[in-house]
Amino acid sequence: MTLDLIVIALVALGAAVVCDLVCGGARGGRVVAYLGVLLAGALLGVAGFATTLAQPRTVVGPDLLAAGHVLLRLDGLSGGFVTLSGIITVGIAAASVSWARRSHAADGRGFASGFALLVASMVVIEVAADAFTFLFAWECLTLAFFILIGRHRREQRSSVAAWVTFGAGKLSGAAVLLGMLLLAGATHSLAFVAWHHVSSELVRVSAFGLLVLGFGTKVGLVPFEVWMPAGYPAAPGPLRAALAGLGVNAGFYGLWRTLALLGTPPVWLAAVVLIVGGVTALLGVTFGAVQARLTRLVAYSSVENAGLITVGFGVALAGRIAHDAALIALGLLAASLQLVAHAFAKSALFSASTFAIEDWRSDDLDDLRGVYRTHPRAALGMALGSIVLAGMPPTLGFVSEWFVLESLMQEFRLPHVALRLAMGIAGALVALTSGIAALTFARLIGLTILRRPERALREPARDPGWLGTAGVVLLGGGGVVLAGVAPWLVRFTADALAPLVAPQDVRSALAAPWVLQPVFPGFSVLSPSWLSVELPIALVVVVGLTLALSRGRWLRVRRVPAWRSATAGVSGADHYSSFGYANVLRHVLGNLLGSRRELVVVAEQTDAGVVEATGVEARSVVVEPVEASVYRGGRRALLGVGRAVRRLQSGRLDAYVAYMLLALVAVLIAVAVV
User: Fold this and answer.
1) CA–CA separation, 578 and 454 (whole Å)
2) H-only helix segments in 290-375
3) Which long-range contacts (CB under 8 A, 24 or more apart) does 520-526 make?
4) Helix/strand/coil for 597
5) Which percentage of the chain shows pLDDT scores above 70?
6) Among 150-164, 213-227, 432-446, 539-553, whose mean pLDDT is lowest?
7) Once rounded to an integer, what is the mean pLDDT over residues 602-623?
8) What is the CA radius of gyration of the chain?
9) Nearest 10 degrees: Cα torsion 168, 171, 175, 176
């Protein structure tokens, strides 16, 4: 039954592609295509939920392209990821329907097709049980990313972003391909089940490292995170959410499945994963905190969340090395909850912000001031997504970060000094990341969403319709509601993680029916369910006491002169801008951010034609160190090599024959040595 639902969903996605390519030139055709994706998402959610709770089984499919029979694995891990993919797809598709009906940016074929291809690729990846099927779907996913980001390649920014994303996808695919080829060569089988027992330890460790590298590139770990800030803003409308909240999860699924297949990793790999995850989280949130554009802020937040999820996965790797089932369960539970929180919140932010960004024709945080007045429904989704990503109680972001931090406090249980040191470093980085994340999203909520707008829209605001609002509320409210039912979510996650760790080990995080603990009894407890009840009651009590004790004076409007922090001779607005709010962080973390500051004299021409200085403007630019040092430096080195090689093009036939002779001799020597 579950496989039938998955097949029907894939057929619906195929129909959506056909509808978009044939009728996508008309608005009605695009709406029908997105409705087809929505239907497929609903079917996938039901099928994934049923698969997670059912007994695992392997399905043998037809023989395609002489590569052997297609193998599908329907177990808890694939079911859990398919469930998440289905729910997120429903929310994004609902928002996309409203977007396609109201926005001129959705005009043309290709967007709905790319979305449908992305969802279909995700599902096939999550149920594939052989290398050929997995790699075929992985390349289709890379193609879907390229279509969504590069649909408007006439614009230079979109073209560069598309090729950068495509390059990262091909690098990821190459590493995964090499890793799987090593395993297939050692076991003489493309089936995943044959890889549980690899005779050569060198092959197993090498494949483990290559697979972690490939999947880590897809999720945006340092130094491969540069494609996210470039690619996400270039994608259109709510389909940015399809990349951030849906497509990237394929990389995390790959990491989870790798651990299930290959077992114990080497110590050095677990230590590298922990430290790289912590560095990625800190770098992502730091650069997100100083961004002036909303889409880049959310993109860098995705880098941060990828780091947090990877840290939890690193804890599970360390637990596998220490043969500590409780630590494995805690690390995987922390990473999985963070993954769910990120998928809902990031999809909500990108989907909801689309309508405000297109009406204001800008994604600048200061231009979007007062979104709640012009787009109240979109502002609700943005606010819900922001508080989840900030890790505020009683949201799932708070619960997941609580588990991540407490998992990192278990380093004393590890036998290896290197792992204890790596977990300590990762813990410090994650703690700093959590504080900066709260600062980042407090700025977004306070100075963009809730601030009074400076100017009015030239045209009437177009908030999401009823279907789009339902999708935004599903995505934004999911991160809040799931915290209230966190114990049920832990039980479901235990079934989803059954291929990696015993479900009873994960369920030991339940200290009581409605109280959570970090798998280790007596360490600490938390009840997000009770917080969901207590915090609203406390708010009502505080507001009621304030009104009663102030005798109504608290609601009176008091008009006072605007306060200025500068001298009377300085011109400019009196308000505290979003850019200015982040300026302190630019100074404090100037070395990490690579900040460059300069003072520019602002001059204007008077009516008499005389140019006069009217003030001084401070400008600040941040440059990501990975991009500046690794990629720009590598580009300069590559161009230098190209200039040197160009000198070999002499135009003389005898020189070319000599080159060929030297190359042949070098090959013969290499073959003899090997």
Assistant:
1) 13
2) 294-321, 325-360, 371-374
3) 520/326, 520/330, 520/410, 523/406, 523/409, 524/406, 526/399, 526/402
4) strand
5) 88
6) 150-164
7) 65
8) 27
9) 60
When mean pLDDT is compared across 120-124, 322-326, 652-656, 660-664, the lowest value belongs to 652-656
Which pLDDT does position 662 carry in this prediction?
A: 87
Cβ contacts of 41 within 8 Å, gap of 6 or more: 9, 85, 86, 87, 88, 89, 90, 92, 93, 119
Cis peptide before 376 (omega within 30 of 0): no
Confidence of residue 110 (pLDDT cuts 50, 70, 90): confident
**Is residue 397 predicted with pLDDT exceeding 50?**
yes
Bridge partners (DSSP) of residue 516 are: 510, 526
Instruction: Name the residue among 126, 62, 79, 90 with its Cα closest to residue 474.
Output: 90
Query: Cβ distance 70 to 133 under 8 Å?
Result: yes
CA distance 582 to 580: 5
| Cα distance between residue 277 and residue 273, in whole Å | 6
Specify the pLDDT at position 226: 87
Q: How far apart are CA 650 and CA 162, in angstroms?
A: 36
Quote the CA–CA distance of 312 and 341 in Å, as a whole number. 14
Please report, for the chain, the start and end positions of each structural domain, with discontinuous segments joined by +: 264-471+491-554, 630-673
What residues pair up with 615 in beta bridges, in sequence order? 602
Mean pLDDT of 466-474: 91
Instruction: Please report which confidence band the pLDDT of residue 159 belongs to, taking 50, 70 and 90 as the band edges.
Output: confident
The two structure tokens encoding residue 403: 């588990």
Q: Which CA distances in Å does 608 have to 601, 605, 612?
A: 20, 8, 11
Q: Which of 145-159, 288-302, 308-322, 351-365 is least confident?
A: 145-159
Contact in structure between 353 and 382 (CB atoms under 8 Å): yes
Q: Any idea which residue has 């980042």 for tokens?
A: 440
Residue 568 has pLDDT above 50, yes or no: no
Q: What tokens appear for 431 in the block?
A: 């703690």
Out of 68-82, 135-149, 513-527, 575-589, pick the least confident.
575-589
Q: pLDDT-based confidence at 173, cuts 50/70/90?
A: very high
* Beta-bridge partners for 621: 596
> How far is the first Cα of the chain from the last one, in angstroms, to the nearest whole number?
53
Q: Are residues 388 and 480 in contact, defined by beta-carbon separation less than 8 angstroms?
A: yes
- In sequence order, the 6+-apart residues with CB closer than 8 A to the CB of 497 are 76, 77, 80, 256, 329, 332, 333, 336, 503, 506
Q: Across the strands, what pairs with 191? A: 130
Torsion 229-230-234-239 (CA) sign: negative
